[in-house]
Amino acid sequence: MNLFARCSKNHFFLAWYSAANFSDREQATEKMNVPFSLPEEATMAQVRAMFESSKVSLQELGLRMGYPEATARQSVWQFIYKTDDPRLSMLKRFAKAMGVSVKDLV
User: Fold this and answer.
1) How far is CA 78 from the centre of its chain?
2) Residues in contact with 44: Cβ distance below 8 Å, sequence separation at least 6, in sequence order
3) Nearest Cα to 80, choosing from 54, 69, 38, 35?
């Protein structure tokens, strides 16, 4: 069986599965007894919702997160809308910039 799993917050979840062994992701999830919805997807959904409900612009958030003025807007846009598996350091920067705890994001 060619599977790769990793641990996040004491939850094991499927990160990759072999199509030769399982017909679909849901079947692999059941077989491995892991959650179907990845925690990172939920975390980034929370990040997006928090940003979108705030009155903070991408530029302002980028500056608060420590990005240079020239790249602040683009860097934050990529983090919020293109990242599905954020690094803890990025979540810490985002939480600090938004004035919340990392716990509020996960």
Assistant:
1) 12
2) 80, 83, 84, 86
3) 54
What is the maximal distance between C-alpha atoms in the chain? 48
* 48 shares a domain with 26: no
Shared-domain flag, residues 28 and 46:
no
For residue 59 the two structure tokens come to 């530029």
Q: What are the tens digits of pLDDT across the range 62-88?
A: 999 999 999 999 999 999 999 888 899
* Mean pLDDT computed over 94-98: 95
Are residues 56 and 85 located together in one domain of the fold?
yes
Query: Tell me: the pLDDT tens digits for 1-23?
Result: 334 444 443 333 334 444 445 45
- Domain of residue 81 covers 39-104
Return the structure tokens found at 39. 């925690």
How many C-beta neighbours within 10 Å does residue 3 have?
Answer: 15
